[in-house]
Design brief:
The chain is mainly α. The chain contains five helices and no strands. Helix 1 runs antiparallel to helix 2, helix 3 packs antiparallel against helix 4 and helix 4 packs antiparallel against helix 5.
Length: 122
């Protein structure tokens, strides 16, 4: 993520240096904010990706709680595995499509790693 922020900041600095008036400066800054907003999965078009990531984090919290309370049973494990596999496959598919369509180099490594580590769904 720091690579994305760094390159976006360089674009901002370059745009500020080339700005000829206040309107151009405002436009350059708005473009910067939009790029940061979009790369942080805050754009409405990628809401489902963010929700899938939250679901995976929720599974992790449930698992941790189950371990801490020593209350894990086989049904819960099967449920977590199934939810995780669905989320992982969804994220993999969507990120690979985004990388392919929008040329997002900061997501290429993550998309490839997810694609090549997809668990089998039951």
């Amino acid at each position: 993520m720091s690579r994305v922020i760094h390159s976006t900041q360089l674009e901002l600095r370059d745009g500020i240096a080339r700005a000829t008036d206040l309107d151009v400066l405002i436009e350059v800054h708005q473009l910067y904010l939009t790029k940061i907003h979009d790369t942080c999965f805050l754009h409405p078009e990628v809401r489902m990706l963010k929700e899938a990531i939250y679901m995976i984090l929720g599974i992790c919290i449930e698992f941790h709680t189950g371990i801490a309370e020593r209350s894990i049973h086989s049904g819960a494990i099967s449920n977590w595995e199934d939810k995780y596999a669905r989320c992982h496959n969804f994220l993999s598919t969507m990120l690979n499509e985004m990388v392919r369509k929008k040329k997002l180099p900061h997501l290429e490594g993550l998309a490839a790693a997810l694609l090549h580590s997809c668990p089998q769904q039951q």
